[in-house]
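Before the break, one more example. Copy the sequence into your notebook; we will annotate it together after we see the structure.
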Amino acid sequence: MNENSIGTIVVDCAVELHRDLGPGLLETVYEVTLARALARRGLSVRRQVGVAIEHRGDRFDEGFRADLIVGNLVIVELKSVDRVTPAHKKQVLTYLRLTGLKLGYLLNFGEALMRDGITRIIHGNLNPEPLCLGASVREKFAGRGGPPGAALPRRASGR
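Here is what the structure looks like once it is written out:
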């Protein structure tokens, strides 16, 4: 399972959880219940994972803790606040950079609608799902811009 597949399940479970419990409870409530929901969907989930700083061979354990790491690929940071700040987003990006992971979610359960509380943060490039085209299809459309009906790139107009 890749980052995007795990992310889809994380978002689905978060929306369902928010619908069940409502907004504004303490973060720990959402953390334990989301971790259980993800585990029930067959994902490995680690809670309160220490994130160390490594620099020039030195290691510092400064007390950074990612709320959840799902499938050893996706970091999930939970909040239950009136609004997300740039510092919250920077926190997730810091965890991604320090762990070498590429995908993180900042989930704010303080929002009235969960869809307004979901921030997806990418560090680096995610590997896209490869297209599953047979060799005969690839050969047939090679050099012709893709299969019929595929959107071709637009040329920039001079205006």
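The two ends are 45 Å apart (CA to CA). Residues 3-21 form the longest helix (19 residues). Try to locate both features in your own notes.
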